[in-house]
Amino acid sequence: MEGLGAVASAIAVVELTAKVGSLCLEYSSAVKSARSDIKRLRKHTDTLKTTAEGVRELLQGPYGARLETSQKLREALSNTCSQLGDVATKLEEKLHKGHRAKTMRRVGLRAFGWPFESKDVDKIIANLQRDQDSFSAALQIDQITEILDIHSKIDLAALPVASGAASDSHAEEHNARCHPDTRTKLLRQIREWASDPQAENIFWLNGMAGTGKSTISRTVATSFAKDGLLGASFFFKRGEGDRGNAGLVFPTIARQLVHKIPALVPSIREAIDADPDIPKRALRDQFEKLILHPLGCIQRTTAIVVIIDALDECDGDKDVKTIISLFAQASVIRSVRLRIFITSRPELPIRLGFKDVQGKYQGLALHQIPEQVVEQDISTFLAYELTRIKDEYNGQVPLGWPGENDIRTLAQMAVPLFIFAATVCRFVDDQGRSNPAKRLKKVLEYRTAARNSTLDKLDATYLPVLDQLTSGRTDQDKAEVLAEFRSIVGPIILLAQPLSVRSLGQLLDVECESVHALLNSLHSVLDIPSVDDAPVRLFHLSFRDFLVDPAKRTKNEFWIDEAEYHKTLTERCIQLMDQCLGQDICCLKVPGMLRSELDQQTINAHLPPEVQYACQYWVHHLKESKHNIEDDGPAHAFLTNHLLHWLEVLSLLGRLSDGVLLIRTLLHAAQLQPDTAPNFVDFLNDAEKFIRSHGAIMERAPLQIYGSALVFSPTLSRVRKQQWKKRLSFIKSVAGINDHWGTLQQTLEGHSRSVTAVAFSADGKTLASGSYDKTIRLWDAVTGTLQQTLEGHSHWVTAVAFSADGKTLASGSGDKTIRLWDAVTGTLQQTLEGHSGSVTAVAFSADGKTLASGSYDKTIRLWDAVTGTLQQTLEGHSDLVTAVAFSADGKTLASGSDDKTIRLWDAVTGTLQQTLEGHSGSVTAVAFSADGKTLASGSYDKTIRLWDALTGTLQQTLEGHSHWVTAVAFSADGKTLASGSDDKTIRLWDAVTGTLQQTLEGHSHWVTAVAFSADGKTLASGSGDMTIRLWDAVTGTLQQTLEGHSGSVTAVALSLDWNSGLDASKNRGLGGDILFFNGEWITRGGKNLLWLPPNYRATCTSVYNHTLVLGHASGQVTFFQIVSA
Q1: How does 949-961 read in b/e, with b if 16+ C-beta sit within 10 Å?
Q2: 1115 assigned to some structural domain
Q3: pLDDT tens sequence across 869-917
Q4: In which ranges do the WD repeats occur (predicted)?
Q5: Taking the model in full, what pTM does it have?
Q6: Would residue 977 count as lying in a domain?
Q7: In whole angstroms, what is the distance from residue 881 CA to residue 985 CA?
Q8: How many structural domains are present in the chain?
Q9: What pLDDT digit, counting tens, does each position of 794-839 carry?
Q10: Range of the domain at 605
Q11: CA–CA separation, 1098 vs 303, rounded Å?
């Protein structure tokens, strides 16, 4: 029964810790002289009790059978029991020894002292901590053994990482750590914070550029790693590719945590199995499923420290605030003491982020450290480094060099910039140059210059290094050197991610030797590897700041014009892509090969780093160059020739979703300039539709860019017409494809049940959807990318609405509650309870202060949207309330009901103003026009009615739907009204005349919700088919169809000896292979050939020789002539 012994010991530890804690409480109320020791012992036993309870739960959990047999665990628990038993016995003996109850009552407890001296308490706590660490370590070992079982292995490749972001990465290997005699007080403070169970879980260290934040981070990381406390680290670095990508922070941290704490494997594996795309999900989803939940499932007595360095260099201000908010939530974890150490410059987005979590972090600004302390630390560092340099030069410098006066002067020049001291030391130590004494003298000369000019600290830091390039040269030589410096260093400091000397040479079309020749003099400011394939990096971002500062344009001869060199980089990127890109660049051969089947080595072999760089960042450089975009200019010519090739590379790199954003960036830049380049703009608009329409398959299967995407684009599309010759070779001709882009822009898939509600944020950038699957999803309305999934409702979600400022999202549910969410972070802010039936509708007032909700309980409730307080309950409807809407001025609230009426209420007093009657069926939807003059209502009677919102007079009845009307919405200008119906269509009406403008078809089930974006250009619809569709609400171009069918195509009859359907036994004639249709793909020879978009999937098929015919549910027929490739 050894196993029972382990469980029994754990239970005994729990009971004994409770007993010792109780005894300490008795003493603390009576013994004043030892309260500090009593408090310490009680605090430790409380912590030990929590850990022991966790051990007990683990022993009784799924891994318990194996853990119970651990000899080390049993010994550790036994020792802890023994130690606690001795302490409890001594406390009890001292409390009762030699006294009868009568005497105790007479003299009182204060007559007795605490039985331990402070040193005894220290020893007891140390022994208990040792035992606690022992059984924690035993658990760790045994869990590792269990986890390494084949059934608990995890594929770490599923967790992408930001290369070089970890503190122990090669990229950080040679970067400085604090000298042992510097920053001692600060480092001690950080260590005390990490070990204090009562401390806040975040420590924010902030300071201006060059004050040594990253050096402190690396030192802290090294120290905690040595003690086994470092869980993970992420060192942001702008211009280093993924090291600025917020989307990789949590996967990178999770991957490191798995290595350090194998007990996390089951939870993280479960998260990946449940959602293989979790690394692409919203930051909140990543954090909760890869960090928060896994850590909450383990027990650990020692702290786990996560280090986040240079958070200000993270791309995206919103992401910065989200990361801070999420880390603040880690305080809810009780089983693990998670500590997050963050450094950054005190920039506005970060200050705002920490303001939102006030009281949940410990902060320290480096500028608050007394200047004399900083100066002393810099002096210590300088003395150590200069002495080392002196020793390495074997007497080539004077005996007394550098001398205390020079060190003091340098330290005074440096304060508070440690980067000054580090740069000076690298400059003085530059092998092969003049001896150190002369180079130090050169630096000290800038002390005198600074006194007599506006020379600042960055000048004094970097000019000694750069001036050596031009010193003693003729004016002509000097001009040549400066030009060469700018042509090479300019691009280096402006690159979006660092490149190696070899790649830099290829990108700039410069010989590697020329690059080396210049860089050899810049080892003090650039990290230049000894091999040509490793990236050249800036030691510090302040070097870039120094070179591009507009204020230094006329003062600094090394000044670099950012716009000019961004233009140079744009030109070189385009030239390089023009030379290197081509169809099937990785030689995949198979049209349907998925990107997930490719290994990175294959991609890298065909796409060298400089080409990858050019494809990802040429638009960035073009934008920053502020150069005019012209018709038939370099950008236009490049995309005309290489759009598909470029998209193929983005797909191979897993960056296809960036394509839409990059095209939009070009469009925005072109539209802002005086000459809008109309031809190029038209091409870009078409390219955006091409990517948005086919992005899903292009991202999955790169070569389908030349197959499905090209084939199923409209025949009059500019992209299709210009690129048609690039189609996959087996496609000879196609007929039956629409001539124009339809109104459908994009189909968003992800919900597992019917979509019930959709809403745009006020800026049009985010789309929210609610579903029967109990979730709310937030989508990027531009790219269609899923940003977040909000979970919490215990029943279907019936309604969603954004506040006017876009910061808050409200959701209503069948669980009778309304939930308010932070629309940026996805954090649940409040749950509003009060309705006695399902909530059916929610709406914010225009000022965002009031939230209205309708319910099955026949009432409308008005809530304070800030505090969540119920303000009023409006009663009057005789059946369930189905819809609510505020007028734009917030004074009137409309409600629709199954009682067939619309009621108008005074939104301030709650007084019923009017009851509008006329519908012969349940009212399902209500909406005000922007000017508040017109109210629209939809009904089960298949009509939409337009009412004068002031008088209640019926203005028009719009008829056309063949089934219930389920949703209505006005465009922002009030000119267009959209309606959704059970007949699977959306109809757009002229809201003034009532004329039907167009009918949007595409959903395969009832339409449940419609919403316009703020600019009126996009219409979103939700449906029972589990999709959200985005439509072009402006052009409304109808799709062409082959006329003749009045319903679904159920058969195709052809003469000769056509075969009906794709019969595996008969359908030959295409190179001898058999042609199949498996629902999504046309396949041949067992390999995917051509992907069919949802609206082109066949209800019947036929093939003869080289011709394939597909009949579609829309009544359309498509013909393909396919030949052997």
Answers
A1: beeeeebbebebb
A2: no
A3: 999 999 999 999 999 999 989 999 999 999 999 999 999 999 999 999 9
A4: 748-789, 790-831, 832-873, 874-915, 916-957, 958-999, 1000-1041
A5: 0.64
A6: no
A7: 24
A8: 6
A9: 999 999 999 988 889 999 999 999 999 988 888 898 999 999 999 9
A10: 564-723
A11: 59
